[in-house]
Amino acid sequence: MSGYLLGLDNGSTVIKAGIFDLDGSEIAVARANVDVLSPHVGHYQRNLDDLRESNIQVIKDVITKAGISGSDILGVAITGHGNGAYLVDSNGRPTIDGISSADSRANDIVQEWYNNGTAKKILPYTLQSLWAGQPPAIITWLKKNEPDVLKETRWFMSAKDYIRYLLTGEIYIERTDISGMSLYNVVEDRYDDRIFSMLGLSEYKHIFPEVKDSCDICGRIVPDIAAATGLVEGTPVAGGIFDIQAAILATGIVEATEKPKLNIIVGTWSINQYLTETPKEDEHLFMTSLCAKKGNWLTTEGSATSASNLEWFVSTFLQLEKEVLKQEGNSVYEICNSAISNTSAEDTDIIFLPFLYGSNTDSSINGTFLNLRMRHKRDHVIRAVYEGIVFSHKYHIDKLFEEYPDGLEVVLAGGGANSRQWVQMFADILQVPVETTEGCELGALGAAMVAGVSVGAFDDIADAADRMVHVKERFEPNIGLKDVYAQKYLKYLNYIEKLS
Asked: Which of 4, 25, 166, 312 is 20 to 30 A from 17 (CA-CA)?
């Protein structure tokens, strides 16, 4: 079989499309921004008509960039941010703007569930923490505050399931996505009336669609989408996959092994995860969800404490340099990489707490620089931002493992993987080897792998990984920095404790 695979990645603010050959080469990538609407404090929404047009545009753009015909594309699959809520009526029209997983309007509802024991009651079934951006909290908030929206709603979908509906006209929800929403029995892999009842949402169970697997063909490209994008009518569209699951697939981690391989995603969220053969229940862990490969579970620790903090710093303090470098065809992150190269771990004791968008320890703590002195230069501050983000990842990883297993290795994904200096810092702080893989859009690659399995280009997910995933570079830890970073990390933890 020959041809290409199209992966779509619908993130919280950026949509990416990637076309890949069957050996995993990234032929072309296209991107589009989607405006985030915030009509009230804590409300984060997206206009779904704009979302549709942006997806159409990136598909059209990536086919043009690749210089291929739509008939060369064997299959399509979509990944996207998990949770949030995309609600439509019986005609498929939105009953409210799409609600992002960053939405926090339902914080009080979640707190009540923890206070009254609901969170503890559902944990043995859902295996994950409750938080405001999940469907149970959002739907409960709508029930209390905008009940007419739910009266008009016929179907609930995730972000990527909504886009698949637009491409195919078929409405389903995919199992890796629904298994991360605190509404699904992750142990038994099914909807469970007990969960809906304990959450007080039994009356809305009917809005949740039939569950499909990642590699199931869940429809085909409809005529109007074909005309608008350059795809061929009837091209198969797979079920798709939750974005954190797409990322771990695209790093070649497809099944649980005796010595776990850890996937770190340095993106908007700090995502740290590995695969297990048995579901893991722990009230202190963030999430356990189902995998594309049945018989495996993904255990995840995460929070909004990663590269979004660096993006804030760059936008706030390096905006002029960013514009100048962009005009020259260069990236502002070259300044950041130089800052790390020009300083050392011993140069400064500045500690940065990367809590601009929320904390993974105490919600009352905000983003903070500590130990700033007159002698410090911009490079020292930039290094502190990078180190603080790695420390936050380490905090999550230490929750995943009481002690790191012998032979633990890490595969790094996300925007941070593009900085060799930052990847080396991860290896030095964690004191384990860290690998990166080829390609810049791993979410789209993971979706393309799923598309390939669905159309028979690969036997299964493992076969797709063997063909499409390639290690780019391996970074060994600097043993000489072990004690230096251990002391810095201890200061990081001590400051958090003092501020709590």
From this structure: 312
Identify the DSSP state of 403. Answer: S
Which tens digits make up the pLDDT trace of 138-192? 999 999 999 999 999 999 999 999 999 999 999 999 999 999 999 999 999 999 9
Which amino acid makes up residue 403?
E
| Residue pair 238/457 in contact by the 8 Å Cβ criterion | no
Among candidate residues 266, 212, 288, the one with its CA nearest the CA of residue 450: 212
Closest by CA position to 224, among listed 388, 412, 92, 420? 92
> 0.90 exceeded by the pTM?
yes
From CA 47, how far away is CA 37, in angstroms rounded? 8
Give the C-alpha separation, 271 to 265, whole Å. 5
Here the tokens at position 232 are 């061929």
First to last CA, the chain: 58
Cα–Cα distance list, 304 to 13, 35, 285, 414 (Å): 14, 19, 15, 14
Burial 314-333 (b: 16+ CB within 10 A, else e): beeebeeebeebeeeeeebb
- Residue 403: partners with Cβ closer than 8 Å, 6 or more residues away: none
Number of residues written out for the chain: 500
Query: Are 255 and 245 within 8 A, CB to CB?
Result: no
pLDDT digits (tens, 9 = 90+) for 389-434: 999 999 999 999 988 998 898 999 988 999 999 999 999 999 999 9
Closest CA to 83 of 25, 155, 160, 189: 160
The three-class DSSP label of residue 238 is: strand
Residues 358/236, Cβ–Cβ less than 8 Å: no
DSSP letter string, 60-90: HHHHHHHT--GGGEEEEEEEE--SSBEEE-T
Q: Which two tokens stand for residue 247?
A: 């990322």
Q: Are 445 and 19 in contact (CB under 8 A)?
A: no
**Amino acid identity at 10:** N
DSSP string, 176-220: HHHTTTTSSBTTTTB--HHHHHHTT-GGGGGGS--EE-TTSEEEE
d(CA 85, CA 88): 10
